[in-house]
Amino acid sequence: MASERELGSQGQGAKAVAGTVPRLYQQVFEIVAGQIVQGVLEEGTRLSESGLAEQFGISRAPARQALCELEREGLLLKSSGRGYRVAKPKDKTS
């Protein structure tokens, strides 16, 4: 998915406020969250700082921040010493 590697390109779903460019971690968050919601990344898929950093061509710090945000939103679960796993999708029937 080469187009997703170009974080500055249009149509990535990253939210810009008053013409400002979203931070790297916010851009990665939006892309990965979208992949989880759409089912591209399935439940149990492992994600790591170094893997995201390499995939998006960024350093580990914004990758780590994006993973923390995804965990905070309930999309990822922290695995002890093993990065993160995609969480079970929430039931939207309620």
UniProtKB/TrEMBL annotation:
Q: Which Pfam families match?
A: GntR
Q: Which SMART domains match?
A: HTH_GNTR
A single Gene Ontology MF term assigned here is: DNA-binding transcription factor activity
Record's keyword terms, sorted: DNA-binding, Transcription, Transcription regulation
- Record-annotated HTH gntR-type domain positions: 22-89
- Show the SUPFAM superfamilies listed in the entry: Winged helix' DNA-binding domain (SSF46785)
Q: What is this protein called?
A: Transcriptional regulator, GntR family
Originating organism: Pseudorhizobium banfieldiae
Q: What is the lineage of its organism?
A: Bacteria, Pseudomonadati, Pseudomonadota, Alphaproteobacteria, Hyphomicrobiales
